[in-house]
């Protein structure tokens, strides 16, 4: 097959490589010329994705994957087009469809009959039917179901392990007609492999959810579930702190029974998915009080962590505090909705000088976010661990000369190593230890 993949980001590029690795001819489209140039050299434009370096180099060398900025080169006569342009949202998760509208218009102006079009972008329920289908038909002059097929199939992968997740999870799919679903099912079966999953109710593979709305809803539901679960864990953690209980022991005990799966509490919930998609769900269902309460509970956690540190000192005014971790998640060089931003803001609001360290970012990159960069070994009065980078597991007071208090927002450090300072974890149940 000839396949076009629109947008070669952290999801789109691995997908393009996966399709090419199955022997198909793939053309990737991206508006960023530097990404296009790197891909055509067989070089990964971003770090951290397992096996991507090797597989990209292989498929480029074989001539199975090329990148371009031109829809005219990629889309005509394609058997399938997969769109992975992200839905942009503002600080309140209000969607801006501009980039996706632009990509859809460019696709519509170049599409030819016989193509399967799949959106793999998380969307509010109803978007595929009410926005993309009319736009594609109007701009192309073609009719969905007769000249081309349109489906929605959400990506369900985790950065850093995308190729494994593509094999492990069923490919959810919703279309407008049996013929469209069949064509899309044949396409995905030709580009993906599926691991055996005896734990599932039916064989792993392409799962037809019977409508585009059900497929859109499924992606919002699975991510919203995680946010609600984490929100509950965070509320348990705050209760545990007030009552001298270690919530981690409670969660371990509770989860020993198969009907409970409480997630871990922590200083923040970041990334492109969990902080955003529940609010896309609320866009469709504004009366979902449980979802709204969980989102509010999670968004309060950076302020809560800084409050714990403040109680240890009495006041943070004039103190230098290191925030360890700019990334939203350990091992991933990405700051989308990272807790570092509200954590730094809360420190500054209390009169502290906030500095930021992250092993994945250069000082210049941290400065570009508006942060003052911190170097390991520089002195500070206190620290907050915001990201669970593995590099932070061995942190000790000697790494921050003069430190008098640490709030470990991710429970990655050893309490024994920090006995010489005021040491707190979220949900640890310890009375806040005043600084010595």
Q: Which key phrases capture this entry?
A:
6-stranded parallel beta sheet; 16 strands; alpha/beta; 38% helix; 15 helices; 8-stranded mixed beta sheet; 436 residues
Task: Detail the topology: elements first, then pairings.
Layout: E1 2-6, H1 12-21, E2 25-29, H2 33-40, H3 52-61, E3 65-68, H4 71-74, E4 80-83, E5 88-89, E6 95-96, H5 98-108, E7 115-119, H6 127-140, E8 148-152, H7 162-168, E9 171-175, H8 178-191, E10 206-208, H9 212-242, H10 247-254, H11 277-284, H12 289-299, H13 301-313, E11 320-324, H14 340-349, E12 353-357, H15 363-368, E13 372-373, E14 382-385, E15 405-408, E16 422-425
Number of helices: 15
Q: How many E-type strands?
A: 16
Tertiary shape: elongated
Biggest sheet: strands side by side, in what order?
A: 3-2-1-4-7-8-9-10
Low-confidence stretches: none
State mean pLDDT (0 to 100 scale): 96
DSSP strand content: 5-15%
Q: Could you please describe the fold and organization of this structure?
A:
The chain has helices at residues 12-21, 33-40, 52-61, 71-74, 98-108, 127-140, 162-168, 178-191, 212-242, 247-254, 277-284, 289-299, 301-313, 340-349, 363-368, and strands spanning 2-6, 25-29, 65-68, 80-83, 88-89, 95-96, 115-119, 148-152, 171-175, 206-208, 320-324, 353-357, 372-373, 382-385, 405-408, 422-425. The protein contains 15 helices and 16 strands. The strands form three sheets. It has an eight-stranded mixed β-sheet with strand order 3-2-1-4-7-8-9-10, sandwiched between helices. Strands 13-12-11-14-15-16 form a six-stranded parallel β-sheet. Strands 5-6 form a two-stranded antiparallel ribbon. The chain starts with a strand and ends in an 11-residue tail after the last strand. The model has no long low-confidence stretch (mean pLDDT 96). Strand 9 (171-175), helix 8 (178-191) and strand 10 form a beta-alpha-beta unit. The radius of gyration is 24 Å and the shape is elongated. It is of the alpha/beta class and 436 residues long. Helix 1 packs across helix 3.
């Amino acid at each position: 097959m000839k396949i076009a993949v629109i947008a070669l980001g952290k999801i789109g590029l691995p997908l393009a490589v996966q399709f090419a690795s199955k022997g198909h001819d793939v053309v990737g489209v991206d508006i960023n010329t530097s990404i296009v140039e790197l891909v055509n050299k067989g070089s990964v434009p971003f770090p951290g994705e397992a096996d991507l370096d090797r597989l990209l180099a292989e498929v480029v060398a074989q001539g199975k994957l090329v990148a371009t900025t031109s829809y005219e080169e990629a889309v005509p006569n394609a058997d399938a087009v997969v769109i992975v342009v992200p839905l942009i949202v503002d600080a309140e998760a209000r969607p801006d469809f501009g980039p996706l509208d632009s990509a859809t218009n460019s696709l519509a102006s170049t599409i030819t009959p016989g193509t399967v079009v799949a959106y793999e972008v998380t969307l509010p329920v109803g978007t595929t039917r009410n926005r993309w289908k009319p736009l594609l038909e109007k701009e192309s002059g073609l009719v969905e179901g007769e000249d081309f097929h349109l489906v929605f199939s959400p990506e369900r992968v985790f950065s850093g392990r995308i190729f494994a997740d593509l094999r492990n999870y069923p490919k959810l799919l919703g279309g407008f007609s049996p013929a469209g679903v069949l064509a899309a099912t044949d396409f995905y079966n030709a580009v993906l492999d599926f691991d055996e999953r005896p734990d599932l109710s039916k064989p792993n593979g392409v799962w037809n959810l019977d409508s585009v709305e059900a497929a859109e809803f499924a992606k919002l539901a699975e991510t919203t579930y995680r946010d609600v679960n984490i929100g509950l864990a965070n509320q348990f953690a705050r209760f545990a702190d007030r009552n001298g209980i270690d919530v981690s022991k409670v969660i371990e005990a509770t989860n020993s029974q198969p009907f409970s799966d409480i997630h871990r509490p922590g200083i923040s919930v970041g990334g492109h998915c969990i902080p955003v998609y529940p609010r896309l769900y609320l866009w469709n269902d504004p009366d979902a009080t449980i979802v709204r309460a969980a989102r509010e509970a999670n968004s309060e956690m950076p302020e809560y962590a800084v409050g714990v540190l403040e109680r240890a000192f009495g006041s943070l005014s004039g103190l230098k505090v290191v925030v360890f971790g700019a990334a939203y998640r350990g091992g991933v060089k990405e700051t989308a909705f990272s807790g570092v931003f509200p954590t730094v803001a809360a420190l500054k609001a209390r009169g502290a000088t906030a500095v930021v360290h992250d092993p994945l970012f250069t000082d210049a990159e941290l400065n570009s976010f508006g942060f003052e960069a911190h170097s390991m070994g520089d002195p500070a009065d206190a620290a907050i661990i915001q990201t669970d980078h593995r590099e932070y597991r061995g942190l000790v007071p000697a790494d921050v000369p003069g430190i008098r208090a640490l709030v470990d927002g991710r429970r990655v450090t050893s309490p024994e190593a920090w006995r010489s300072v005021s040491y707190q974890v979220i949900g640890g149940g310890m009375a806040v230890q005043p600084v010595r």
